[in-house]
Amino acid sequence: MRFQQIGFNRLIKLEWVSYTANLALTGNDKSDIKSILLNYLSSQFPNSDPKVRGALSKTISILMKIWISVPEDLESLRDSGFELLKEFPKEKHKVIHWGMITAAYPFWAIAGSYVGRLIRLQGIVPVSQIQRRLKEKYGERETVSRCVRYLLRSYIDWGVLTDTVKKGVYAQGSIIAVKDIKLITWLIEAQLNTLIERKSSLKVLFETPALFPFQLTNILSDQLLKTSNRLEIVRHGLDDELVMLRDCL
């Protein structure tokens, strides 16, 4: 299952994720998209043999899994994500790509939660601290350290982290204000898909450090329900609301 696996072992640029999604939006099928990506990325991996599962092949596999070859339980999220990409201007697309990559690769969100916590606590993100926390979760493996490096460099490419004068220490990058109810609801749903139990307190979801690059406007639970038929709200008392995906009821 994707919840137990890391699976994220390459630098993934935002430009590449956007290009992959646009290929689908313009009507290309899965095999065509894979071929187009091979040609598109080949110049950036000059020493990679497409017949061997190297850096180029692994990168394409990750890109395909984000928007194209998604697990069956993410298809409705993906399809509504495509609709949002068509509806919203390009400057809002990072929100949608972030949501889709977190759903496809929960490791992205788990690492993001550690990054967000460190930013809140100390304003900086030492890579060594992220590696230590993720090794505690996934085991003392060199694979974890390597994947963390790829992921943090991806965060930098996406503009959500920036380098500091000290090597291996990063700082908060750009923060995007998310005010539209459709985007907020979809991002909440994407975040639920990163959780094994696929449910969480609404308050926790809005405050989760995993969404550190975004500032979400708080909306009422009734607005969530009106916007997505894939969500359900369970109320406990006057101010405790649990949000869950309908398919886990």
List keywords for this structure.
249 residues; alpha+beta; three-stranded antiparallel β-sheet; 11 helices; 54% helix; 12% strand; globular
What is the domain total for the residues?
A: 1
Provide the gyration radius in Å.
Answer: 18 Å
Q: How would you describe the shape?
A: globular
The SS-based structural class is: alpha+beta
Report the strand count.
Answer: 8
Task: State the helicity in percent bands.
Answer: 40-55%
> What are the secondary-structure elements, in order, as H or E?
HHHHHHEHHEEEHEHEHEE
Beta-strand residue percentage: 5-15%
Helix count? 11
Please mark out the parts with pLDDT under 50 across 5 or more consecutive residues, or reply none. none
Average pLDDT rating: 91
Task: State the separation between the terminal residues, measured CA to CA.
Answer: 20 Å
Output the strand order for the largest sheet: 1-3-2
Main sheet makeup: 3 strands, antiparallel
Descriptive notes:
- The protein has 249 residues and is of the alpha+beta class.
- The protein has one domain (1-249).
- It contains 11 helices and 8 strands.
- Strands 1-3-2 form a 3-stranded antiparallel beta sheet.
- A hairpin with a 5-residue loop joins strand 2 (161-163) and strand 3 (169-172).
- It is globular, with a radius of gyration of 18 Å.
- The two termini are 20 Å apart.
Concise summary:
By secondary structure, the chain is an alpha+beta fold.
